[in-house]
Amino acid sequence: MKKWVSGLLIAGVLLLGACGNQAKTEDTKETTNAAKEETIRIASVGPDAEIWRFIAKSDAAKEAGIKLEVQDITGGAITNNAVADGDADANAFQSIGYLESFNAESPVKLVPVATTYIEPMGVYSNKFKSIEEITDGANVALADNPSNTARGLRVLESAGLIKLKADFDDGIGTPDDVVENPKNLQFTLIDDLTGPRVLPDVDLVLISNTIAFEGGLNVLKDSIYREEADASTRKSINIIAVKEDRANEEALQKLGELYHDPKVQEFVTEQFDGTKVEVDEPVSEVWE
């Protein structure tokens, strides 16, 4: 009897010791994972910030050892300056064309580390139901910032409404670069944020999708024409941008993988009704 009790006590001690060692092992793993976790401050704007808040809570971010701090900033130039000044490590809100325009004026250069999506720019009208219905002298509102002005003109050209000069600059082109205008379209430059609000006051308005979506418009359903995602719309592809001298940092390179995680893409499709079309192309294929 004494031997049986003694053996039972010894077994219990060994079992407790094993559990203790297992708990220590789990604690060590958690400590190691926490030590490996790297914090990245990512600046974004409006709806894009929603995506990155979702990514910050995702299993993919945890598995990658990335802790995301999302900074929701209003204004494209401010968001780029946050990265240029070191107040943020990366940003995700802009197209290649917008970034090129920023770099042309900034002493600190930013570069993309990954592609994310393209949002078709649309032509909207309360007056016309199709491109074919547009009448002579129609007033067209374009966003008054370099990349979106040029982008809007390219959309009008692809719709067959105008022709641009051969050396048209997709970063800074203006209505002065129109060489053929058979319908005598009249151009008005507006604050791009006001696109949905001016729709009743003009014949046509070119609106980028983020602004259209926030204004209750869906480019796939409400526009009378929209740009297509092809080689001619390279500058309309959105990207994740960082300072040029940090582009090769492993943690920053992981941001693209996180964005293209299948669960993240499910969220993006559902949240934005399919209007953010995924683009998962190597940066080397789209950045010159």
Automatic annotation (TrEMBL):
It holds the Pfam family Lipoprotein_9. It is a lipid-anchor. GO terms for cellular component: membrane. Keywords: Lipoprotein, Membrane, Palmitate, Signal. A lipid is attached at C19 (S-diacylglycerol cysteine). Residues 1-23 form the signal peptide. SUPFAM superfamilies: Periplasmic binding protein-like II. PROSITE patterns: PROKAR_LIPOPROTEIN. InterPro entries: Lipoprotein_NlpA. It is found in: Membrane. Belongs to the nlpA lipoprotein family. This is Lipoprotein. The lineage of its organism: Bacteria, Bacillati, Bacillota, Bacilli, Lactobacillales.
